[in-house]
Amino acid sequence: MSPVLEAPVTASEAVPTSVHPREAWSLFSEGQAVLVDVRTPEELKFVGQVPGAINVPWATGTSLTRNPRFVRELEAKVPDKARRVLLLCRSGKRSALALEAAVKAGYKRASNISEGFEGELDAAQQRGKGDGWRFHGLPWVQN
């Protein structure tokens, strides 16, 4: 079977507000998007992270206080606002908020990664048992 060639995506094309982790990995690993992990540095260190992802925390500390410099830090690390940007957090909630801020700042080709890195809590109050980046067996590393 021959590979399917796609036309280049233009900055004006609409992108979905949310993408599945598998689609996000495909876009990121093929160099079509930058992946921005909005979790805290502590979460990255102790829970794990996607290799090659950029970290711009949406919130900081154990109380997850909103990072007032989020947009400035995002602009410093991803200055091209026409670039495809994928935002990841633990469950998809913080990255959805980060998506709103990114779009408001001019990132029109940004999407939230649904399910997040660890997924939603299940009935036993555990994550990663039914959804999330790690659940789907996508690449990740831990320090």
What's the Cα radius of gyration?
A: 15 Å
Question: Which fold name corresponds to the CATH topology of the domain at 18-113?
Answer: Oxidized Rhodanese, domain 1
Number of separate strands: 7
Q: What would the average pLDDT be, to the nearest integer?
A: 90
Number of helices: 4
Can you characterise this structure?
Strand 2 (34-37), helix 2 and strand 3 form a beta-alpha-beta unit. By secondary structure, the protein is α/β, with parallel strands linked by helices. The longest helix is centred in the C-terminal third of the chain and has 12 residues, at 93-104. The strands form two sheets. It has a five-stranded parallel β-sheet. The chain has helices at 21-29, 41-47, 70-77, 93-104, and strands at residues 18-19, 34-37, 54-55, 59-60, 65-66, 85-88, 110-113. The chain has a domain at 18-113: Rhodanese-like domain (Oxidized Rhodanese, domain 1). Helix content is 25%, strand content 14%.
Brief overview, please?
This protein is α/β, with parallel strands linked by helices and 143 residues long. 25% of the residues lie in helices and 14% in strands.
